[in-house]
Amino acid sequence: MSSAVLYLAIVAVWAVVLVPMWLRRDTSRPKKTDEITEETPVEEEEEAPPPAPRRSGRAAVIARRRRRTFGLTVLVLATTVVAATGLAPWWTILPAAVLFAAHLALLRVAVRIDAARRRERAVVAAAAARARAERAAAERAAAQQNADVIELDPRPQDEVFDQYADDRRVVGE
Q: Which residues contact 12 (CB under 8 A, 6 or more apart)?
């Protein structure tokens, strides 16, 4: 009975770790060939569509954390079900629970680090905005000090002739 649990654990590790690694391997690189003879013509590769772009660094980290959390949750649930049905002793839940608890602790630390980085970026952005505003104010003040004031001749205050106003009068006149 215990060898069946061991085989099940091996298959589970293979499914959780090795299958995703195998699926993620880079297939866009050409395979290395040991021998290329002159008889075999080397054909130029057609312009295949570019490989799908990978996620940015932050998005990849978050996706990895999500996958790991999901996998550990499934592992805890599976070991709990196996122990509850009597196929394995109760203590088989402990390694999965310890891994899950350690992962949650790691996530808490990661959240604190992310918050600290966000605060640092906000402080740097505020300082940069303040420096830009001070620089713009200094440039405006310098432009006002260097401005030449030109006095314009006032226009003569002649009456404007309106050819259509002869027969019209304002109310009350």
A: 75, 78
User: What is the tens place of the pLDDT at every residue in 50-97?
Assistant: 666 666 788 898 999 999 999 999 999 999 999 999 998 999 999 999
Q: How far apart, in Å, do the first and last CA atoms of the chain sit?
A: 117
Contact between 5 and 88 under an 8 Å Cβ cutoff? The reply is yes
pTM above 0.85, yes or no: no
Tokens for 8, please give them. Answer: 């099940």
- CA 5 to chain CA centroid, Å, is 40
CA pair distance 83, 5, nearest whole angstrom? 11
What span, in angstroms and rounded, lies between the C-alpha atoms of 113 and 84? 38
Distance CA 132, CA 149 (A): 28
